[in-house]
């Protein structure tokens, strides 16, 4: 079930619940993956708050909105919002969040939104883009596409080889089989910075995703690349969350 996958994701990165940690490099572009789980029946109100207030106030305080999604799983689709934002640096992130939370306009919007308290504390994962993460642009007709958030945990000392496999083989093979690469990141904080790859890809539909994964997995070129990469098996089964972009998401 998708809800259990979200739970696993939350547990895996539970140590990242604090928003204002100091990163190893506080002066480079940093992305932030955030997961919100609302109280029952409050997701529409949360989406309205982001649509009408939060995104504008993010921009006011130097936070760039990248994409906003709701999982396609029936249960998670009722209460879960997943989004990615971008900061000029880790120091800038700390300053932006401080200013945003203290903004009287935000306090008013939050109080009047009807969202109330979230069912769980927001989850936050700070990330940096890999050197092979592509530049993404929306295309005509993308509004109905399905996105997929995936989290890989490599075995000890294998993350570099996993990156090389994506850089040299996987991304091209994804494109060959109709899978559009959106972005690839590493968490910035230990211990996950040493072994974790987080990425988002895009499919034309849920059915297309199944067909693409089937064709990709059986492709002799992929089998050869996987065998020769030196990655071996992952430390745990990949996490996968299928998502639909919200109507207000810049990325569609």
Core attributes:
252 residues; alpha+beta; globular; disordered N terminus; NIPSNAP domain-containing protein; NIPSNAP; Dimeric_a/b-barrel; signal
In short:
With 252 residues, the chain is α+β, with helices and mostly antiparallel strands. Helix content is 36%, strand content 25%.
Could you explain the architecture of this structure?
Keywords: Signal. InterPro entries: Dimeric_a/b-barrel, NIPSNAP. It holds the Pfam family NIPSNAP. Helices cover 36% and strands 25% of the residues. By secondary structure, it is of the alpha+beta class. The chain has 2 domains: 2-17 and 24-128, Alpha-Beta Plaits (2-Layer Sandwich), CATH 3.30.70; 142-245, Alpha-Beta Plaits (2-Layer Sandwich). The chain has an 8-stranded antiparallel β-barrel with strand order 1-3-2-8-5-7-6-4, surrounded by 5 helices. Strand 6 and strand 7 form a beta hairpin. The two termini are 24 Å apart. Mean pLDDT is 91; it is low at 1-25.
| Main structural class | alpha+beta
**What is the helix fraction of residues, given as a range?**
25-40%
CATH fold call of the largest domain = Alpha-Beta Plaits
CATH class descriptor of the largest domain: Alpha Beta
Rg = 18 Å
Give the overall average pLDDT.
91
Looking across the biggest beta sheet, what order are the strands in? 1-3-2-8-5-7-6-4
Walk me through the topology.
Layout: H1 2-12, E1 30-37, H2 43-60, E2 64-71, E3 80-87, H3 90-102, H4 104-112, E4 123-129, E5 146-153, H5 159-176, E6 180-187, E7 196-203, H6 206-218, H7 220-228, E8 239-245
Helix pairs in contact: 2-4, 5-7
